[in-house]
Amino acid sequence: MGTTTPAATEEPHVYTARGHMPVAALQYSTDWKVSDTFIQFTETYAYQGQVVKQSVHVFDRTGVTGAGAAATF
Amino acid sequence: MANTQAMCTSFKGELLVGKHQFGSVTLTSRTSLTAPTTDTFKAALYVATATVNASTTAYSATNEVSGTGYTAGGTTVTNATAPSTSGTTAIWTPSASLAWTTVTLSTSFDCVLIYNSTQGNASVSVHTFGATTVTAGNFTLTMPANDASNALVRIA
Description:
The structure holds two protein chains of two kinds.
Chain A: E1 13-16, E2 19-22, E3 27-34, E4 38-47, E5 50-60, E6 64-66
Antiparallel strand pairs in A: 1-2, 3-4, 4-5
Chain B: E1 6-7, H1 9-15, E2 41-47, E3 75-76, E4 84-86, E5 89-92, E6 98-116, E7 122-142, E8 153-155
Antiparallel strand pairs in B: 1-7, 2-3, 2-6, 4-5, 5-8, 6-7
């Protein structure tokens, strides 16, 4: 009993808007946006120039603040 | 029209009447004095052309994103972390990331509204990011450090 290692000839696929497609057939790109409040990473798979898979990950660097105050008499 | 990161003004007022029950229960819960429960908080995404800001008082489906794999109303926020204080600041941050998996959201969106679905969908806060779309992929929002400078919700 043990894990099964895929045969070397098996081609890795990834789920896309066009169904499962071979990774090797896709163009992979990434993009970063960095601001004071967030860092955003986008990874895109395209096929013949058309985006078929895109995921986005945002790190919220800082939330929101409400200021408390007490009046003086 | 644009979305603006902010603590909702109505939320500030509601804090004074104990409307929201974050990650820990107290005997002053208005749900039940004998078996208090925390409220359920949710997170909904809005398109970039919406106007969600400090004046937003409650969740609305208007201008909420839609698409394959996305349920109107958004996703439930993990409300397991009790509010606490750090120095002179009260802080609260969800204990897990917000995640939408295998979704297709074709209309550009750039903000998430946190709201209390237990209390009439009362809004809590608005958080913005870069306008984006998602195609057959995942969208995740990782929470900030739960400290006086960065927590998702801070009362200073």
